[in-house]
Amino acid sequence: MNTSPISYKRHRFPPQIIAHAVWLYFRFPLSLRLVEELLLERGMTVSYETIRRWGKKFGPDYARRLHRKRPSRNDVWHLDEVVITIAGRKHWLWRAVDQDGYVLDEIVQNRRNTKASRRLLTRLLKKQRIAPKRMITDKLLSYGAARRQVMPHVKHRSHKGLNNRAENSHVPLRKRERMMQGFRSPGGLRASSLSSPLSVTSSSHPAHSAPHSKTASTASRR
């Protein structure tokens, strides 16, 4: 799959600093102001508002590049759903990860039923273009009903203890939710959830490294 390079045109700071700031924000449960302080200790003066804009602009793209891999018929899909609150209303975040813990897809829906499960599976097949060897879920009956409709030949194991990979993938999102005291809009949730692959492992840095002592001028407006 061809990928066009990320453009940093009209950004004052070097790509390494931008990538490092975004990685810090999504890798650890840090506030924007704490990331600002960490960068300042390394000689980089960047405002928290600039870091917020960087995360919104570059975070999802970094995550997609880190976890792009070729689908295989031997893949195992772990599916799970978790309740979240957006602007005081209950929603469900449906997520699929593979056997390595990489997020394959996720979707926010206001239902927890067969129709919602079927929508997730349909999106996954369209995106992956190949069915997995097996899918693993918790004991929600909607998964089995949706699988029989969408991919009846795929093996299905339904056991809560086997689905730790999918459940663990929600941990960074939960930390971000507590830190932000809830999500105020779907956009705020997307910024956190789409960039969650940056939180899978500390080695998944989107850039080689940030300079240890880089004196930057005042924060860019971008």
TrEMBL record:
Domain DDE, first and last residues per copy: 76-186
Low complexity bias spans: 184-222
Alphabetic keyword roster: DNA recombination, DNA-binding, Transposition
Pfam families attached to this UniProt entry: DDE_Tnp_IS240
Region (Disordered): 153-222
Any one GO MF annotation of this record: DNA binding
Keyword DNA-binding applies: yes
Positions with biased composition (Basic residues): 153-162
GO biological process per UniProt: DNA recombination; transposition
Magnesium in keyword set: no
The organism's place on the tree of life at top rank: Bacteria
Protein's recorded name: Putative transposase
Source species of the chain: Aliirhizobium cellulosilyticum
